Give the backbone structure.
Amino acid sequence: MMDQRIITVAPTGAWPTKRENPNVPMTPQEIAEDVEACYHAGAAICHLHMRDEYGLPTMDAARFEEAVRLIKKSGIDIIINLSTSGALDATDETRQAHIRSIRPEMASYNAGTMNWMHRFVFLNTPDFMEELGRTMLECGIKPEVEIFDAGMVYNAAHYVETGVLQAPVHYQLVLGAAGGMKATIDNLLFLKNLLPADATWSAFGIGRAHVPVMLTTLALGGHLRVGMEDNVYFAAGELAESNAQFVRRAAALIEHAGMKVATPEEAREILGLERVCSFE
């Protein structure tokens, strides 16, 4: 069977606005339309953040529900992966309310606390990490374990040992976030070599390391994440026209490397997902 690689699209994130790039989708309707275009370009997973009416990050469950409803209404089979972070003032409860009501196939699980952008504390306490892991187990949600530095790999290993996370774990290696590990090829290789042998993993680089990290990730056997959550520029000095533009480039790189872009159904098999999000 041809080597299959998954493309995840992260269309919005918590920080970029239309001031940084007028093509960033912000409303649930814009996000849903963007996700549909990315699905047709080759994305198997969409990783979603929400914004409020002022464009600020929000954990409002109703906004997540509206976006997911619109995506499901479009008839596409993309895997729904919901963020459990973004609004720094969110409570432990509001960070989980939407995944309890929607029960997506996947959701993010941040594996530790860090200084975010040298300005804020991105707080993930041990109590919250245990509670979030058990919520995901209860709801049948596959965690995407977010790794911003090496210590978070060992945090995740602890929660596997204690039954909060279940192996095999899927990791998202995040390189280039200020406060985390720099986006270098050496750091990517270092993190990848810390992962358990049975793990699946994806990676991305923020900023100018975006393409080198993609190429190295493919060479090392990983999956790809792209989108305006991580990069509003497609190339130096060139604003991205759409998230689908990023997806098309990722798909072309996979195919040029002699690999196959995984469909959502193939991605479910690779990741061991046991159900499809049935939220309506």
In short: Residues 136 and 142 are 7 Å apart (CA to CA). Residues 28-41 form the longest helix (14 residues). The chain has nine helices and 16 strands.
